[in-house]
Amino acid sequence: LIIFFNINSDKIVDVEDSATATKSAKDLFEAGILLPESRLFGSLIGLISQKTLTSIEEMGLKEMTEIQYQTIIPLLAGSDILGAAKTGSGKTLAFLIPAIEALYKKKFRPRNGTGVIIISPTRELALQIYGVLRDLMKNHTKSFGLIMGGADRNTEAFKLQKGINILVSTPGRLMDHLRGTKSFNTNELFMLIIDEADRIMEIGFEEDMNEIISLLPHKRQTVMFSATQTKNVQDLAKISLNHDPMYIGVDDDKSAPTVDSLKQGFIIVPADKRLLMLYTFIKKNNGKKIMIFFSSCNSVQFHSELF
């Protein structure tokens, strides 16, 4: 058994580059958008609801990462964003906080249908986003949900019929429901978030994404994050973003796809010791976010019941 692990340190990620920050500050100034003087989440008092601030505090977060600092305010102001940030930079919070605030200010209810759609390339990433969303929504009453391949479609359709205000999805399953679930109401959709756009296109969802864009209301705010700016990503940006999106890139001078504080390693374990090692590793990192991949569904079921 070889265990690969990624552990994100608790240290606030400092990815600020002077040239990039100057360029971003200039763009924001020209757009009439002023960033907070402090990177503390407390500096957002009056800009976001107390309910969201309370959730952030309960999550143990105090200081914004660079991508959060540069992105949250422009999104609250209604700008379209094309963002570039490495894995582990905190971009999930960067788009979730403004999305939740928009729902809150618009007083969205389940009867309004879906106001925000977040598209993620894989089930694993969708689950990760949904977990952060669930923590942020603890003090809110808006409805939120997750649809993805491999889940029960009828159950998803029933929840969509009841009304999911903020929806996390994978491209294929979203396309499936847009085509075949008549009760899926997106008439009042005002925000579309495309996360890891480069991976979405690499996997082969280009046609699905083009159709999804065409089926959703055109008058909306769009957010797109991509680690790399490939031709396919640029083409997707052209049809999904407005004609003057704001570009925010906090890692333009960095080639590595992950932040420097992300530790990676592996352990070679004899077959008869692997279960004990896995159990010990999980217990030692209790309270941290851990994703474990197994070779089969049966193995997933076995270990979930065991642990």
From TrEMBL:
Asked if the keyword Nucleotide-binding belongs to this entry, the reply reads: yes
What keywords are annotated for this sequence in UniProt?
ATP-binding, Helicase, Hydrolase, Nucleotide-binding, RNA-binding
Q: Which PROSITE patterns match?
A: DEAD_ATP_HELICASE (PS00039), HELICASE_ATP_BIND_1 (PS51192)
Q: Which reaction does it catalyse?
A: ATP + H2O = ADP + phosphate + H(+)
Q: Which residues form the Helicase ATP-binding domain?
A: 72-247
Which GO terms fall under molecular function for this chain's record? ATP binding; hydrolase activity; RNA binding; RNA helicase activity
The record, for InterPro entries, names: DDX18/Has1_DEADc (IPR044773), DEAD/DEAH_box_helicase_dom (IPR011545), Helicase_ATP-bd (IPR014001), P-loop_NTPase (IPR027417), RNA-helicase_DEAD-box_CS (IPR000629)
* Record flagged with keyword Coiled coil: no
- According to its UniProt record, the EC number is 3.6.4.13
PANTHER family membership? RNA HELICASE
Q: What is known of its domains?
A: The Q motif is unique to and characteristic of the DEAD box family of RNA helicases and controls ATP binding and hydrolysis.
What job does this protein perform?
RNA helicase.
Q: Family, per the entry? A: Belongs to the DEAD box helicase family.
Protein name (database record): ATP-dependent RNA helicase
Protein species of origin: Myxobolus squamalis (Myxosporean)
